[in-house]
Design goal:
506 residues; mainly alpha; globular
Length: 506
């Protein structure tokens, strides 16, 4: 119960600031319809409850499974087994990721079916499966992370020259959306399980991160390749209307419950099947351990359902409405300020962010505090959504003007920070863009784009997640540079102290 109470305290500190911002805007600049406001407040409560239960379930169920699978396939000493299992796991985990389906449905809806949601999910999942397999082999073959990322993003930018701005924006958004509440905990645990088998603590530390970042590049490649088959044409987009006020609150949530419950079940089903297969043939765990993991999966499922119900029931519609109302004002300043504040706060409510920061603190033995990582991520995402809003308001700013120098800087910084932070940084880029960002923040930005005459709902409305996925990479690498500088200083101080002590004894 103490662990559950700790999770609740953590979640309250994360979600309440978002609620506070919306309430302040409601009573000042952007009043909401009563039913929309009530739906949002109910959604906030459901997000708090769901996120608390979900994170508790992750610790009890998904992380032990991921670590166990990673250990088992590594001990098989068969590259055929590793490649086969990684391809299958990568595809199905990605295919079941709720965040990816949220984004794919938004793309399908906004483009009126020009980019079908099923095609998008399949393309992304294939890309994830291929790159996750490559990431697993990288750990076993001791390939340096910085070279993998430089190669992957070099290929992406080559392909981007042959893609339309619409597909480019959606592709980078997909890389962030696909690394969500289910994918990230499992991949982090899988990487930790594989790296733990290797000799050397420092090598194991560094290899515990990076798999999420490598896998997310597969999503970009998958969409860009799909764009070639769709002739990379211009996608016409119209933002669908969302009106909670026309329906009762009970209907608003009850109408979504069965779909979310079914989608959440499909999300966890591949992982359940994997656990059953590995338990029968590899783990052979005792009854008590099986019961503990089963309970963890049940908690994860219940928490995910409640969390997604809160997000979809209240958050998205309010985000769109706030974007529309603020963009309609005479000044652009309110849009930019709210965008910054949303970024600073929404990232703290991301489930996968908490999973990553906890693992960072655990893997580094507490030398890198999770609170410090959260601060760096919060500032990075705040600047990301600010930059996204600025891009919509100023017609001359294109997405590539952010991404090209941004990822170039990230590649350069990788040569000056420890490998541990390189993997951490690219993983952070993936986890920062989870369900809260893919729903509330994206809805807000699309609401702004829908009202600005010079903006395009597709090419400007999408692309925000891409920036959100980029800025944390730079932020964590800067944190790595600070960590390295302090380590060097501490090491020099220790040497001087030893020399001084030795001189006295002499």
């Amino acid at each position: 119960m103490n662990e559950l109470a700790g999770k609740l305290k953590e979640v309250l500190a994360s979600v309440l600031p978002i609620t506070f911002i919306v309430l302040v805007l409601h009573f000042t600049l952007s009043p909401l319809e009563p039913n929309m406001l009530y739906a949002f407040l109910i959604g906030s409560a459901l997000v708090i409850i769901g996120l608390t239960v979900f994170l508790f379930g992750i610790d009890q169920g998904l992380e032990p499974i991921g670590r166990g699978v990673g250990n088992a396939i590594t001990h098989s000493n068969s590259y055929a087994v590793i490649i086969t299992v990684s391809l299958i796991l990568g595809f199905f985990i990605s295919y079941a990721e709720p965040d990816l389906h949220i984004l794919a449905n938004q793309v399908d809806s906004v483009t009126s079916g020009q980019f079908d949601n099923t095609l998008m999910v399949a393309a992304v999942s294939i890309g994830i499966g291929v790159m996750m397999t490559f990431g697993m082999l990288r750990i076993l073959k001791n390939i340096r992370l910085k070279y993998v990322f430089i190669g992957a993003y070099a290929l992406i930018f080559i392909l981007s020259f042959f893609s339309s701005p619409d597909f480019l924006a959606i592709a980078f958004d997909a890389s962030g959306a696909t690394t969500g509440a289910i994918t990230v905990p499992f991949m982090l645990a899988l990487a930790a399980g594989v790296s733990a088998v290797k000799k050397g603590s420092k090598v194991s530390e560094a290899d515990s991160f990076g798999l999420v970042g490598i896998s997310s590049t597969g999503a970009i490649l998958g969409v860009l390749v799909a764009g070639f088959f769709l002739k990379n044409g211009k996608l016409d987009g119209v933002l669908p209307e969302a009106d909670i006020s026309s329906a009762g609150l009970l209907y608003t949530y009850s109408s979504k419950l069965l779909d979310i419950a079914w989608e959440s079940f499909l999300t966890l089903l591949p992982i359940i099947i994997v656990y059953i297969v590995f338990q029968l043939f590899f783990f052979k765990q005792k009854k008590r351990k099986v019961i503990d993991i089963t309970r963890g999966i049940v908690f994860t499922y219940a928490g995910l359902v409640v969390f997604l119900l809160g997000v979809n029931g209240g958050f998205m519609a309010v985000g769109t409405q706030l974007g529309l109302q603020l963009a309609a004002m005479d000044s652009d300043v309110p849009v930019l300020i709210v965008a910054l504040l949303l970024g600073l706060t929404t990232v703290l409510a991301e489930p996968a962010v908490h999973v990553l920061t906890n693992q960072v603190e655990e893997v580094t033995g507490g030398s890198v505090r999770r609170r410090l990582v959260l601060i760096f991520l919060s500032v990075a995402v705040g600047l990301s959504i600010f930059m996204s809003a600025l891009r919509i308001l100023i017609p001359g700013i294109r997405l590539w003007m952010y991404l090209l120098p941004g990822f170039g800087l990230a590649a350069l910084l990788a040569f000056f920070v420890p490998d541990l932070f390189v993997g951490m940084a690219y993983d952070a880029g993936g986890v920062a863009s989870g369900p809260m960002t893919a729903t509330f923040s994206l809805a807000f930005v699309q609401g702004v784009a829908a009202h600005v005459p010079t903006a395009d709902v597709v090419s400007d409305g999408f692309g925000m997640i891409a920036i959100v996925a980029m800025m944390p990479i730079i932020a964590i690498e800067l944190l790595g540079a600070i960590y390295k500088a302090k380590s060097i200083k501490a090491s020099k101080g220790s040497v001087i102290k030893k020399q001084s002590t030795g001189g006295k004894h002499g």
